[in-house]
Design a protein that fits this description.
The protein is mainly alpha-helical and 419 residues long. Helix content is 69%, strand content 0%.
């Protein structure tokens, strides 16, 4: 489908128009360009003369080499083009190159170089760089934690309309980072970002509704926001909504709907979704063929209200300690938010596996003595089901109470790497 008013959009992008650049990056991330639009862009890039248009032509060319649009993916060429655009003063190229340095996306993590480029971009008013540098202050990357410096940069960026900064500042209010917990202000900023289409804000606000943070539990509103984020491709929303289906939160249990969402998120690379699918497959594969009456008599039958009332209620004081604790001296070995989640998942997996083994053995011995083979089978699967559920719930809460803010590639609220 052709991009509306493409020639006008391209002209605005080559002249540094921020809203146009935001649209452009969204199209780039989804590879929405037609063959004719790609040809038109390449012709304009090649025809760009020195000055402003040349710097943005280099920047667009770098982006497309990075994403493999109109050419094969070529990170080395992308870096060369970014550097050329930086030499012409392009703040968006500075931000993107800084991001590569910060995460070692070019194979060499260089925090000082990242900070230098972020600061150069900030001096030129780049809100994405403000957001990314604020995050470094918040988590002590490249120095000590400095909540006040983080807040100053987030507020500077959000006052210029940066929805990522609104979302992250709201998150700090929610957890009481750099000040007291302030749910009303967190909600106000989340809602402001949501009104501008930020899916991370939708997920964070939905989570507050789901677990009654700042107000009473509101499943319908949580579902509405998760569904809106899902429609925009947010995998975290897919996983959270799937868990609501799986554990009867806000409606009847619907394992098929849960699986469909887990599969959708899994195809997009979400680790929690992949683990959930493995757990479900394990349970289905190892489910014993026990007589129906034995299952009802001996299996651990958790009533619906048990699942709902025992869903993880996150205490306010524990939220911050569950988030990524990054010390300055350990920054070089500190994974990004998603890697931190993976580490937590691995730990949870070990705990769950050990728990399943221990409880299954105990149930097996007990039921073998009292109920025969059917009791053995039922006890083993019952323990596996219970502990698998606990493990996934624990990792789900960790993911939703840790920072899942995305660093800003240029002017948009999404990126291939994560903070």
């Amino acid at each position: 489908m052709p991009i509306p008013n493409f020639s006008e959009l391209l002209n605005k992008v080559l002249n540094g128009d921020s809203p146009a650049l935001e649209q452009w990056l969204q199209y780039t991330e989804s590879n929405a360009f037609s063959a004719e639009e790609i040809k038109q862009t390449i012709d304009r890039i090649n025809a760009a003369e020195e000055g402003l248009q040349k710097s943005y032509a280099l920047y667009l060319n770098a982006l497309w080499n990075l994403y493999g649009i109109g050419t094969d993916k070529n990170q080395i060429e992308a870096i060369r083009l970014y550097e050329a655009a930086i030499n012409l003063g392009n703040s968006h190229a500075m931000n993107d190159r800084a991001l590569m340095h910060e995460y070692g996306l070019d194979g060499n993590r260089d925090i000082p170089a990242a900070i230098n480029l972020y600061e150069m971009a900030i001096e030129r008013g780049n809100t994405a760089a403000m957001n990314n540098r604020a995050y470094m202050h918040q988590y002590g990357i490249g120095g000590d934690r400095n909540y006040l410096a983080a807040i100053a940069l987030y507020e500077r960026a959000m006052n210029r309309g940066k929805t990522e900064a609104m979302t992250q500042r709201a998150y700090m209010h929610q957890l009481g980072l750099g000040g007291n917990i302030n749910y009303p202000e967190a909600i106000r900023l989340y809602d402001k970002a949501i009104n501008r289409g930020n899916t991370e804000a939708m997920v964070k606000r939905a989570f507050m509704h789901e677990f009654g943070l700042g107000d009473v539990t509101n499943y319908p509103e949580a579902i509405r926001l998760y569904d809106e984020a899902i429609n925009r491709g947010n995998t975290e929303a897919m996983v959270n909504r799937a868990n609501m289906h799986r554990y009867s939160l806000g409606g009847n249990k619907d394992i098929l709907a849960a699986i469909a969402l887990f599969e959708k998120a899994s195809k997009l690379g979400d680790i929690l979704a992949q683990i959930a699918l493995s757990q479900i497959k394990f349970v289905e594969t190892n489910e014993p063929q026990a007589p129906e009456q034995s299952v009802k008599t001996n299996g651990p039958q958790a009533p619906e209200q048990f699942v709902e009332t025992n869903a993880p209620q996150v205490p306010e004081q524990s939220i911050e300690t569950m988030g990524p604790q990054v010390s300055a001296q350990s920054e070089e070995n500190t994974p990004s938010g998603n890697l931190a989640n993976i580490s937590m998942l691995i730990l949870s997996g070990f705990i769950t596996a050990a728990g399943i083994a221990a409880i299954a053995i105990a149930f097996t011995v007990l039921n073998a003595a009292t109920c025969g083979i059917a009791g053995v089978a039922v006890a083993s699967v019952g323990a596996a089901l219970a502990l698998s559920g606990i493990g996934l719930f624990a990792t789900g809460v960790y993911k939703n109470t840790s920072t899942n803010s995305y660093p800003s590639l240029d002017v948009v609220d999404t990126m291939v790497a994560t903070h």
